[in-house]
């Protein structure tokens, strides 16, 4: 199918176009390209035809190094397709959002933006492990330059830390991948890097011990990306220093590469090990939720606050992933989308404020509702989506993650290894989220008007310009839509999620049986203790 | 979809009921035949209209409308909601109905035996939700109309925003009340929390308003956490969160086979936490008095119709869970009783009349929880109903005074309002509200409070009799502090000082230095009069003929509770909604155990009769005390206070009461401040230990290794230097950490 290739190549072509055009035309070319890519992704979604089932659509393969089983094979299941749509939606908004914020080295800037789009689409479309990994790693390069060239004052340290940290993590994941591929070659005599083949092989043929090593390697790689406590410290730094569009892409899509990696690789490849290790990962996720949430509470830099809130929020997503039941997994995948929408929008809003006042310090700015009512409206709206107000999108995913975690006890048709205690502690995060987000709103949106003196001249109106409203409005509409009719996404992804979970009930039951036989229920927050 | 399982459960239910209940000769009340009433599709408009109003207000805001249009839109839409509620009431067939509107979250397992999760926007109409939705929309309409005049100083500024907020408020409350499942209830539940955040923080440039709004939202969130956990528990235990299915399973006992472990016992405790948060009970009540930072019509909405009654509604709606765990009901009763007393003592010592009314709400809500705890859901519901009227009128009159006297609310600085031209309706309306709140004989509050108080003596529970006396004492305090307000503000000689609020620039008659209060005009007077009459008429339902049997006292409101999920708390009925034969034998199997007690009495009289007398006397005494100290000899009040303050052993008491028993300070010191310090420590930990020491440290290892492999080049001095530098760095780091902690400790 041609659609997948167009999706991949269009941004690359656009990047070449941007480099070839004049600096003045760069942003128009970038906007047109990203819009066209979005259009193509919509067409691809219509052409996709396998919504609701667990199959792959848009499947296509070009032989590459076929003698060692490496091919350029692409395709997407419904979850990947959703994330592609999220990516292609956010990109034109990111371009529009940078319209006035970036004024130097325009060609490079938009070139990198388009390249990162191609890389992200590649990650979601890859069906070949090597191709996946190349795209996965390549996302780092454009982001590195976006931070290094267009970032804030501490950008040098931030971009190096971002690059080295996630690169190291990815290398460890690569070791895990290569180990699986090597085991496959050992046992069958041929090399193959088809993701589905390797997943099936690893899940069925590897021993528990082997799976554990693979799981540790993969989780380290993906946990850095997510980021999971305690490997999260690159994120606040990178977010704070990145330009607005960089933060939006980082929070909106790049972090999801980690959770997507867990969904795509960890869950299907190492089910036995997952059952063994889910409680530990669950505990890390809960620590992340509460710890990062409380840290948010004492932030004074708005952008850092939103950055730490990502650490806190994605903890819910990780819990949902390891709940090992359809509720939790649906919740987790929805969380990826919803977090991309609402946190992406929050970064846009912070950027719009920064562009006007050149500060993000909550103590030196306040009461902006008076000066910028439209901005204030959107700010409060997306904060509420982020807090998880029912009726908006964040609530649905948070609720599903938590109820999935809660229900992941030892009984039922989808037994799990988390359980009520995990959900109860994680749910405290709901209160913490309200605390830090409302404090932020209380300081910068409400209260007496406090505007720092800004010497720099900018051409922006006091309140949002139509262009800025166009950036935010689609996100707001989607937040409402997914809040009231999450079924649109849930029904579409049902098949993939059930497929991923199909092997788990038996494995969990087996594991529980073993533990019960051994007379110990350590680490299991089961219902019936 | 639900029907097949329903029929199955129904048939099972009938046989089970027949076995469990000794008096099987009466026909079981068919509460479980819930029908899907598609013919009532128009009931959806009760929900849509506030939403439409919100959208239209949004349009008004976008088009910068500077007239009263938003107020008229909102009033009209809410009136429409009210009319539809009435139509639904008159067309209601007597058995619960489901009215589907829109799907929401559904998850079915393709594989088969996973129970599936389902929560849709479907209306559940039974007598309880009808009762609630009628007074919510009715009072909501009136209060909105009142606000159209009250808020006019903000025309073109926040006017539209205000009415948009009111629309959200009403929408959320209606969704809460009409939900057919706990998740949609949760939507309304958080929705009213959010709307109150919006409206309490209406004057967003005032820091105290922002703080109060935030406090309300966060305190409510703590309660919401309880509700969320209860929903998880209920779903994992029963596989459903829809009322009709839950009630069936609970009533017919079929859960017993599937049930093991602690989950069922835990459910009521979490529901209780939720209800205490929303309905401002100890320990989560502190947000409600602060909520008066919002414009007064908002306070009237929060305190009377929407918001705080939601907690009572939740408990009544999920009463079957509470019946399974009698201890939980005992706790509900005691928390309610204690909250009633504590809030009343605080109300006693305040000077701000709106604040006094706010504490009286907390106190009255305590009475309602007491009623729920002592198994009179009907008493609680009736008190909610009467309270909605008289508390609304009290807040609206306070609002009129505040509006007219430039924000003056101090009862020491206002006097003799009834003699000022134009303030008669306000004063009389306030008098009616005060009489009802004080439980003056033959007012609505008198009957509804008695229904609760009497039951405290009838039901058997740990210390319920003492609780009953506490409640009677609280009723005395209530009568006193209520009339303290009225005698000070409305009676006596004419004297007043304006407040310092100029929310209409020179709109308040500050001409040439003299101040003329501006009396309420038609809209405000009309609404105050109508609601005051409502507060009087609310006594009538008590005497209306009841369609149930003789065992049932309480008239129309009892009927409204009878056909609902809360019927387990009706005197004279067992938890299957059946008469338990002997009409004298109030209560039922849960609190009576084997059910063979002598009929309880108070001072040798029938409890209901005794309570009519006692509470009449107590109310009268409170009123007389207030008349003495605050009408006839006001100087005695000051003398009394001065006398109290002369004695060290009692001097702390009035101060502690005035400072609200220091609860806010205690919360701040015990919870917020430690958490604040801990958060700073965590942030320091994150930056210095995790990021600084571990991450950067590990990042340095390769470089250090490279150095170690070149000892010849650098010699021994260099390695000393490395060690020293490392050691110094470590010491410096520790010092920075120490200073950071110290600063945080000092600053937090």
Describe the structure.
The complex is a heterodimer of chains A (529) and B (748). Chain A has 21 helices and two strands. Chain A has helices at 2-20, 23-47, 78-97, 106-125, 129-138, 140-150, 155-188, 195-205, 208-225, 234-241, 244-269, 271-297, 302-322, 326-357, 368-371, 373-387, 393-407, 420-445, 466-484, 487-501, 504-518; strands at residues 57-65, 70-76. In chain A, strands 1-2 form a two-stranded antiparallel ribbon. In chain A, helix 1 (2-20) runs antiparallel to helix 4 (106-125), helix 3 (78-97) runs antiparallel to helix 19 and helix 17 runs parallel beside helix 19 (466-484). The longest helix of chain A is centred in the N-terminal third of the chain and has 34 residues, at 155-188. Chain B has a three-stranded mixed sheet with strand order 1-2-3. In chain B, strands 4-5 form a two-stranded antiparallel ribbon. In chain B, strand 6 and strand 7 (514-515) form a beta hairpin. Helix content of chain B is 67%, strand content 4%. Mean pLDDT of chain B is 79; it is low at 1-31, 503-512, 573-597 and 742-748. Chain B has 28 helices and seven strands. Chain B starts with a helix and ends with a helix. Chain B is globular. Chains A and B meet through helix 7, helix 12, helix 14, helix 17 and helix 18 of A and strand 2, helix 6, helix 7 and helix 27 of B.
Number of DSSP strands of chain B? 7
Radius of gyration of chain B: 29 Å
User: What is the helix fraction of residues of chain A, given as a range?
Assistant: over 70%
In the sheet with the most strands of chain B, the strands line up as 1-2-3
Which percent bin holds the helix content of chain B?
Answer: 55-70%
- Give, in order, the helices and strands of chain A: HHEEHHHHHHHHHHHHHHHHHHH
């Amino acid at each position: 199918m041609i659609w997948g290739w167009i999706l991949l190549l269009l941004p690359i072509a656009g990047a070449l176009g941007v480099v070839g055009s004049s600096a003045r035309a760069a942003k128009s070319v970038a906007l047109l390209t990203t819009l066209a890519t979005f259009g193509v992704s919509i067409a691809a979604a219509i052409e996709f035809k396998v919504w609701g089932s667990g199959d792959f659509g848009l499947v296509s393969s070009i032989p590459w190094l076929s003698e060692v089983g490496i091919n350029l094979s692409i395709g997407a299941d419904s979850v990947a397709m959703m994330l592609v749509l999220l990516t292609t939606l956010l990109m034109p908004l990111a371009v529009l959002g940078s319209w006035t914020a970036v004024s130097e080295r325009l060609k490079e800037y938009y070139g990198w933006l388009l390249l990162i789009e191609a890389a992200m689409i590649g990650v979601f479309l890859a069906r070949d492990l090597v191709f996946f990994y190349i795209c996965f790693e390549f996302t780092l390069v454009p982001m590195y330059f976006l931070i290094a060239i267009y970032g804030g004052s501490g950008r040098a340290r931030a971009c190096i830390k971002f690059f080295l940290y996630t690169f190291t993590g990815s290398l460890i994941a690569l070791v895990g991948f290569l180990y699986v591929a090597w085991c496959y070659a050992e046992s069958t005599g041929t090399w193959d890097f088809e993701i589905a083949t390797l997943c099936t092989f690893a899940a069925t043929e590897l021993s528990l011990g082997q799976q554990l090593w693979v799981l540790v390697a993969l989780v380290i790689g993906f946990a850095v990306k997510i980021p999971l406590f305690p490997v999260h410290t690159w994120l606040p730094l990178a977010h704070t220093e990145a330009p607005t569009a960089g933060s939006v892409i980082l929070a909106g899509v790049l972090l999801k590469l980690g959770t997507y990696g867990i969904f795509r690789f960890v869950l299907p490849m190492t089910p036995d090990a997952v059952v063994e290790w889910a409680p530990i990962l669950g505990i890390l996720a809960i620590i992340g939720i509460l710890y990062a949430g409380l840290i948010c509470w004492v932030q004074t830099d708005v952008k850092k606050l939103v950055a730490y809130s990502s650490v806190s929020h994605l903890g819910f997503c990780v819990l949902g992933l390891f709940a090992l039941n359809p509720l939790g997994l649906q919740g987790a995948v929805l969380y990826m989308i919803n977090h991309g929408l609402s946190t992406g929008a929050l970064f846009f809003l912070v950027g719009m404020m920064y562009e006007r006042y050149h500060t993000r310090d909550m103590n030196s700015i306040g009461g902006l509702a008076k000066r910028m009512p439209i901005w204030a409206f959107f700010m409060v709206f997306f904060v509420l989506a982020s807090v998880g107000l029912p009726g908006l999108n964040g609530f649905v995913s948070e609720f599903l993650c938590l109820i999935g975690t809660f229900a992941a006890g030892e009984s039922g048709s989808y037994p799990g290894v988390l359980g009520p205690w995990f959900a109860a502690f994680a749910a405290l995060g709901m209160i913490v989220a309200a605390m830090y987000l409302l404090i932020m709103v209380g300081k910068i949106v409400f209260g007496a008007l406090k505007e720092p003196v800004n010497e720099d001249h900018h051409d922006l109106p006091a309140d949002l310009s139509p262009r800025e409203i166009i950036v935010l409005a689609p996100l707001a509409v989607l937040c409402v839509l997914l809040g009231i009719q999450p079924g649109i996404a849930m029904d579409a992804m049902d098949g993939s999620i059930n497929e991923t979970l199909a092997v788990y009930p038996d494995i969990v039951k087996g594991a529980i049986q073993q533990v019960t036989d051994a007379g110990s229920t350590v680490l299991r927050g089961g219902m019936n203790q | 979809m639900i029907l097949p399982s329903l029929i199955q459960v129904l048939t099972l239910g009938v046989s089970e009921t027949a076995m469990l209940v000794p008096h099987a000769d009466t026909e079981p009340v068919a509460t479980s035949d819930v029908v899907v009433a598609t013919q009532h599709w128009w009931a959806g408009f009760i929900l849509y209209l506030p939403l439409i109003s919100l959208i239209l207000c949004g349009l008004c805001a976008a088009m910068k409308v500077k007239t009263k249009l938003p107020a008229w839109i909102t009033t009209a839409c809410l009136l429409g909601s009210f009319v539809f509620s009435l139509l639904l009431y008159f067309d209601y067939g007597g058995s619960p109905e489901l009215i589907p509107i829109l799907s929401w979250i559904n998850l079915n397992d393709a594989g088969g035996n996973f129970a599936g999760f389902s929560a849709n926007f479907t209306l559940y109409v039974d007598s309880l939700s009808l009762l609630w939705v009628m007074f919510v929309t009715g009072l909501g309409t009136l209060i909105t109309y009142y606000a159209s005049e009250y808020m006019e100083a903000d025309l073109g500024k926040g006017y539209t925003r205000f009415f948009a907020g009111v629309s959200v408020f009403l929408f959320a409350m209606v969704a809460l009340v009409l939900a057919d499942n706990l998740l949609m209830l949760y939507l309304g539940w958080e929705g009213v929390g959010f709307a109150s955040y919006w409206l309490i923080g209406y004057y967003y440039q005032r820091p105290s308003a922002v703080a109060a709004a935030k406090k309300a939202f966060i305190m409510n969130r703590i309660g919401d956490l309880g509700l969320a956990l209860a929903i998880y528990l209920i779903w994992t235990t029963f596989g459903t969160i829809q009322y009709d299915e839950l009630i069936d399973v609970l009533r017919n006992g079929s859960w017993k086979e599937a049930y093991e472990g602690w989950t069922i016992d835990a459910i009521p405790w979490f529901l209780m936490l939720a209800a205490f948060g929303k309905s401002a009970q100890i320990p989560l009540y502190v947000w409600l008095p602060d909520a008066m930072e919002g414009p007064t019509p908002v306070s009237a909405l929060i305190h009377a119709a929407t918001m705080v009654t939601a907690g009572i509604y939740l408990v009544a709606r999920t009463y079957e869970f509470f019946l399974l765990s009698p201890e939980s009901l005992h706790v509900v009763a005691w928390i309610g009783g204690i909250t009633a007393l504590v809030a009343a003592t605080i109300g006693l010592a305040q000077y701000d009349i709106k604040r006094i009314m706010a504490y009286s709400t907390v106190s009255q809500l305590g009475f309602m929880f007491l009623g729920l705890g002592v198994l009179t859901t009907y008493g609680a519901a009736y008190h909610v109903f009467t309270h909605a009227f008289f508390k609304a009128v009290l807040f609206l009159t306070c609002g009129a005074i505040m509006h007219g006297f430039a924000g003056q609310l101090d009862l020491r600085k206002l006097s003799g309002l009834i003699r000022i031209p134009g303030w008669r309706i306000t004063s009389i309306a306030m008098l009616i509200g005060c009489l009802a709140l004080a439980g003056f004989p033959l007012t609505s509050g008198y009957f509804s409070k008695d229904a609760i108080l009497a039951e405290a003596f009838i039901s058997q529970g740990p210390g319920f009799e003492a609780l009953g006396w506490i409640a009677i004492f609280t009723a005395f305090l209530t009568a006193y502090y209520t009339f303290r307000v009225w005698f000070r503000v409305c009676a006596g000689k004419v004297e007043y000082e304006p407040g310092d609020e100029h929310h209409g620039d020179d709109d308040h008659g500050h001409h040439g230095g003299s101040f003329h209060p501006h009396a309420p005009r038609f809209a405000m007077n009309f609404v105050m009069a109508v609601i005051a009459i409502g507060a009087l008429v609310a006594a009538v339902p008590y005497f209306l003929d009841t369609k149930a049997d003789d065992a049932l006292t309480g008239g129309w409101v009892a009927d409204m509770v009878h056909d609902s999920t809360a019927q387990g708390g009706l005197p004279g009925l067992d938890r299957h909604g059946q008469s338990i034969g002997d009409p004298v034998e109030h209560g039922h199997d849960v609190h009576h155990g084997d059910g063979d007690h002598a009929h309880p009495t108070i001072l040798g009289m029938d409890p209901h009769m005794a309570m009519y007398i006692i509470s009449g006397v107590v109310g009268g005494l409170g009123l007389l005390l207030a008349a003495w100290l605050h009408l006839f000899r006001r100087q005695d009040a000051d003398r009394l206070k001065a006398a109290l303050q002369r004695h060290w052993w009692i001097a702390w008491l009035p101060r502690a009461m005035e400072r609200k028993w220091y609860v806010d300070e205690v919360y701040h010191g015990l919870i917020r401040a430690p958490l604040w310090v801990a958060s700073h420590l965590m942030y320091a930990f994150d930056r210095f230990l995790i990021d600084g020491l571990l991450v950067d440290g590990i990042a340095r290892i390769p470089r250090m290794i490279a150095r170690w492999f070149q000892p010849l080049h650098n010699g021994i001095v260099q390695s000393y230097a490395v060690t020293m530098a490392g050691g110094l760095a470590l010491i410096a780091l520790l010092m920075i950490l120490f200073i950071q902690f110290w600063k945080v400790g000092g600053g937090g």
